[in-house]
Amino acid sequence: MEQRVPQSTSLLAIRHLSKAFGGARALADVSFDVLPGEVHGLLGENGSGKSTLIKILAGYHSPDAGDVEVRGVPVRLPLAPGQFRKLGMEFVHQDLGLILSLSVLENLRMGILAAPKNRLYIPWKRERAKALKTFELYGLDLDPKARVGDLLPVERAMLAIVRAVEGMRDAMAEAHTDQGLLFLDEPTAFLPKDQVDKLWALVREIVKTNASVVFVSHDLHEVLQITNRVTVLRNGRHVGTVTTAATSRDELVHLIVGQALVSLDAAHDDLRNRQPVVRIRDLEGSRLRKTALDVHESEVVGLTGLLGAGYEEIPYLIFGAQKCAAGHLVIDGKSTELTSMTPSKAMDVGIGLIPADRQRDGSVGSLSITDNITLPVLSSYFHKLVLLRRRMMRDARRLMARVDVRPAEPLMTYSALSGGNQQKVLLAKWLQTKPRLLLLHEPTQGVDIGARQKILTLVRESVAEGAVVLCASSDYEQIALLCDRVLVFAGGVLVQELSGNEVTTERITEQCLKSVQV
Amino acid sequence: MPIDAPAPDPMHPSDESLRQRSYMRWQKLSSIAGQYGLVIAWAVVALFFTLLPQTSQIFPTGNNFATIFGSQAVIVMLTLALMIPLTAGDYDLSVGFTLTFSAMLIAVLNVENHWPIVLAVFAALVAGALIGIVNGAFILIFRIDSLIVTLGVGTFVGGLVLLISGSNTIGGVSTGLVDWVIVRRFLGIPLDFYYGLLLCLIIWYVFELTPLGRRLLFVGRGRNVARLSGINVDRVRLGALISSGVISALGGVVYAGTTGAADPTSGTQLLLPAFAAVFLGATTIVPGRFNPVGSLVAVFFLVTGITGFQLLGAESYVENLFYGGALVIAVALSQLARRRQALETGN
User: DSSP E strands: which ranges in A285-410?
Assistant: First the structure.
């Protein structure tokens, strides 16, 4: 499977790279090449070593062993922080590194404004013209004066990429080379799926100019679409580099997980004639317009649509996490006005919410897993004026084992877990409250395939234990796997309902794309 | 460290776990060193002045230790007051002014208006709670940064102190109060030391052993997380600010009892020592968290050093050097610890 490439032709050659953190091995003897002018995918589950590899190249970590060659020239390891620039490399990380309160132009020229050869006077007019020209070159339609915080997520991602490419270009001129290397570290993880096409066009433009792109992602669909070759890491080891055109989704899955996945029960039952458990009427948010929906006994209902369709507000409106303009909820016959809903009232009537942004809304990374997991049920551990900390830890350990969190070490800080395990902890946190209505928003975002499978299975198990589920997501495949019924939204309005055999990835995708013309 | 990266060997699965275990043991050791570092430093400082010929006559005496322990109750209380809103994620810069106001109110009511001392003390505590409510109202209703609100409210309260006192020191506070604060002793140390200790114990209990303590921590570390987990964030923040007001006022009671008088300015200079102690305290006992026992250790570490140098003949500048230096070094230390932690977890 390994493609042997003559040393002289590869842009980046990684040889026998190893790195351990304390006792934990992150990278073991990894070797592969990135060729000039290719898009090279880097795949692997969370914790497979992708991030460590990237961080070694960016100069954050020093490797324990191994060599790196750039354009055939050996590089002295460890790299100094920022040294990658001089080598004609650039990185775009998931968080993009943009300052939301500043303008597009200010963000674009940030590196140059901070450069040592700073001038006393910045010719803003000329800079603006230059920026417009750059945007035109890459087919971007951005106003240099716009505030970055007002841009769409995909526009922000593209701005960050263009900025990196520009920086790379300057460095290439200084290094007297025309071959640049751009690393995109999961730039699409938080983007709506229907918008990433624009990003691909940009990546293709970049490759045309003789630069190479290393593309790190969880999304196999994207990787198959955009890359020329793919390298897969598993448990810190290099398990293969394959040519994209000659591989398949199944082969990649096999390489990533080491085994074929058991498919979830894909048969969907039409449960609409069952007893309705939840009735929502006249729900109105900032984008969502008057909406009514029911959830029946044992039902998992998907909420989806294109970006800005308004469906993504629904879980937060029901939970009282976001102010709603109007709305009425009946759950098990008890009725509540949603305008006065608060998270604690929602919990009292048996509702649980797993938000999409687990770093900001879901958990506190600097505190222990035990502290995070027991937060919603703290009072039940207060006995005879003392918090039963040992019992909290024991229960946390039991919950972690149930949702398969590894390592099952309840006193570890939450942030030390990989993304998939973090999400499983959040699920455990809410499942222990035995919710009657479980609200999910992008439950498997930025999570590896194995964890995703586990999370979907756990949601199904909670249904078997008596919950009903509302899941808002732009991941159509996941919706199709998980839901019995899917509601498609456009412009804040419910436009289509799919149920039973209609619930397939293709049908959902089709309905969402069709909804634009409405 | 070269890694030989052996192929997975089902016959010797313990190799990895062995290395993991020795790493864990090393980490445990280094974390214990970090946990008690400040306590050790305190012992070293005390030992230093005990052995130093110039101070060895005076420093290691019961009298000196009684002074060290007995003179710090006001700072201990102010430190504990500050710690509660800090844990909930809010600064309270008004604590020093609240303390001064409380002491002055007692003096004015007791000395000039002849209120019984118990009633005057009660009024001072109510005033402290009111200041907390005002702080909370502006921070929570108008969503203003706590730094700005408490700086403004504190300065305003400082103005009130000058107003009610006519900018004068008022002496002659009831000997009953003085008696119960500083004259009576237990094991040779004035009672005010034990008040501080008791308060520290109560706060330790709340922080460590009650759900409220956890909620406070989550509100400080992740407001959204707390809110979406069903915690009434605003109520917790308001409660923290009121507590800090009341405890600062309690510090003012002890202040009035210690000196038998209230002066309009000196209490406000205690804000920085309290900040230094609370941040230095966060590097010890429960490293990375504001914690009451750590704060107590920090207060006494700082005062031991200062007393030692003063016995050597250093003048009041040594206090500024110590408190200012400690604040900056403590914050730098906690930053370093955070960076190391991030490096070890590979984030």
Answer: 291-296, 300-305, 326-331, 334-337, 351-354, 382-383, 386-387
**CATH architecture for residues A7-257:** 3-Layer(aba) Sandwich (3.40)
Helices of type H across A358-417: 369-374, 389-402
Strands A493-499 and A485-490: antiparallel
Q: Backbone phi, then psi, for A430, in 5-degree steps?
A: -90, -30
For residue A10, count other CB atoms closer than 10 A to its CB.
20
Overall fold of domain B41-344: ABC transporter involved in vitamin B12 uptake, BtuC (1.10.3470)
Q: Is A345 helix (H, G, I), strand (E, B) or coil?
A: helix
Alpha helices (H) in A102-195, listed in sequence order: 104-108, 110-113, 124-137, 153-174
Q: What is the DSSP-derived secondary structure letter of residue B186?
A: E
A276-364+436-515 has which fold?
Answer: Rossmann fold (3.40.50)
Q: Which residues make Cβ contacts (< 8 Å) with residue B324, sequence separation at least 6?
A: B272, B276
Buried b (16+ CB within 10 A) or exposed e, B33-54: ebebebbebbeebbeebeeeee
Angle at A183 between CA A178 and CA A185, to 5 degrees: 165
8 A C-beta contact, residue A18 and residue A65: yes
Backbone angles phi, psi at B145, to 5 degrees: -60, 130
What is the pLDDT of chain A when averaged over all its residues? 84
Summarised one tens digit per residue, pLDDT across range A74-93 is: 988 888 877 888 888 888 88
Predicted TM-score (pTM) of the model is 0.75
Kindly list the strands in the beta sheet with A65-70, ordered across the sheet, starting from the edge strand earlier in the chain: A24-34, A12-21, A65-70, A73-75
Instruction: State the CB neighbour count (10 A cutoff) for residue B1.
Output: 7
pLDDT in tens, B37-62: 888 888 888 888 888 888 888 888 88
Radius of gyration of chain B (CA): 23
pLDDT in tens, A96-133: 888 888 899 988 887 766 665 656 677 788 888 888 98
Q: What is the ipTM of this complex?
A: 0.80
Residues 6+ apart with CB under 8 A from B183: B190
Give dist(CA B66, CA B69) in Å, integer: 5
Please say if the pLDDT value at position A3 is more than 70: no
Domain residue spans of chain B: 41-344
Q: In which residue ranges of chain A is CATH 3.40.50.300 found?
A: 7-257, 276-364+436-515
How many residues are recorded in chain A?
A: 518
Chains A–B, number of C-beta pairs less than 8 Å apart: 108
Q: Which residue of A has its CA nearest to B347?
A: A416
Please say whether the beta carbons of B222 and B49 come within 8 A: no
* Cβ contact B284:B35 at 8 Å: yes
| B19: chain A residues, CB-CB within 8 Å | 23
A390 in contact with B, Cβ within 8 Å? no
In a mutagenesis test of the B interface, which of A351, A364, A377, A429 is the best target, namely the one with the most B β-carbons within 10 Å?
A: A364
198-227 of B, contacting A, C-beta below 8 A: 208-211, 213-215, 217-218, 221-222, 224-227
Task: Say what the pLDDT of residue A35 is.
Answer: 92
Rounded to 5 degrees, what are φ and ψ at A334?
Answer: -90, 130
A416 vs A235: CA distance, rounded Å: 16
Six-digit token pair at A413? Answer: 């800080």
Q: Residue A461: in which H helix or E strand, if any? A: helix A449-464
Nearest to B211 among A28, A387, A415 (CB): A387
Structure tokens at B202: 């109560």
Lowest mean pLDDT among A172-181, A332-341, B245-254: A172-181
